[in-house]
Amino acid sequence: MTVRIGTRASKLALTQTQQTADQLAAVGGFPVELVHVRTDGDVLTGSLSQMGGTGVFVAALRDALLRDECDVAVHSLKDLPTGAAVGLSLAATPRRVDVRDVLCARGGLKLADLPAGARIGTGSPRRAAQLRAARADLDIVDIRGNVDTRLGRVPGLPGNSTDQVVPGKSCDLDAVVLAAAGLERIGRLDVVSEYLETDVMLPAAGQGSLAIECRTADAPAKPGPGGVLAQALAALDDPDTRLAVTAERALLARLEAGCAAPVGAYAYRRGSMLHLEAVVCAVDGTATVRDKRATDGLTEVGATLLGIELAELLLAAGAADIADLQAS
Ligand SMILES: NCc1[nH]cc(CCC(=O)O)c1CC(=O)O
């Protein structure tokens, strides 16, 4: 049996899928092959909201699973909608990598060193809001495109030819903000000028982790060994990562937050406690509701309850009044 692993064609998707395929083959002892799946998000160039949100990246891979064109799909967990997918299971959340966002600025500048009015590119309302809250004078420019396209707009980054900012030209930004995880996976951490700590910039729920999905029939069964694929998937799962992302996603679901809602969330286990921090911001950066909670219930139910509890605290503090949570 050859296990077919569906992937998008972007460099990030190919890299993370190939790494996962290698790990599955190593632990499972079966051959694997990559199956290329085109998604609307790769084909169209309009704004993500016009296409129905980042869920478009996920939907085509899920269709391919359900149509039996592949057996396993690897997603960036932060792109996965919180609603359940009928017939599919979240089979594994491998150990999470760096959750932080990073600044990639010309001349190695840090956030505090950027000149007044500096042009910072991001397509994420969450990043825009937290940048404005930290530095009200910045000019936040809405951008999209793959990681290389974004990096290409900042002059003087390693790999870019010019070192001047020229508005209206392709090198028109002082900096972009990206996830450390994506840069780490494609081997481009050389462009980072500053790691933004979570007290300044809370990441998106699920940032830095992968979601490995399969048809429910192939998923690791709760008791019992399951088939060879199920066993290999179970071996790739990291329980602490699963707890953390369960809490983060329960918070999002309770907020009924769309994928473009300005919400940051980060959970992590320390000893016997699971901690969760979250923020909801007005996109203009003028108002922020932020809080944290912890639980000693280190189970999926405990993590879910933690997410719900913190979401309700944020709502009681006015989260729905300062931000359009349904933005998708
Ligand atoms: N929004 C697109 C996206 N989806 C996943 C990652 C990589 C980071 C991750 O896996 O969490 C990125 C790029 C980015 O946000 O910089």
UniProtKB/TrEMBL annotation:
Residues 243-315 form the Porphobilinogen deaminase C-terminal domain. Keywords: Porphyrin biosynthesis, Transferase. GO terms for biological process: heme biosynthetic process. It comes from the Bacteria. Its EC number is 2.5.1.61. InterPro entries: HemC, Porphobilin_deaminase_cofac_BS, Porphobilin_deaminase_N, Porphobilinogen_deaminase_C, Porphobilinogen_deaminase_C_sf. GO terms for cellular component: cytoplasm. Pfam families: Porphobil_deam, Porphobil_deamC. Residues 3-219 form the Porphobilinogen deaminase N-terminal domain. GO terms for molecular function: hydroxymethylbilane synthase activity. Its cofactor is dipyrromethane. It catalyses: 4 porphobilinogen + H2O = hydroxymethylbilane + 4 NH4(+). Belongs to the HMBS family. Monomer. Tetrapolymerization of the monopyrrole PBG into the hydroxymethylbilane pre-uroporphyrinogen in several discrete steps. This is Hydroxymethylbilane synthase. The lineage of its organism: Bacteria, Bacillati, Actinomycetota, Actinomycetes, Micrococcales.
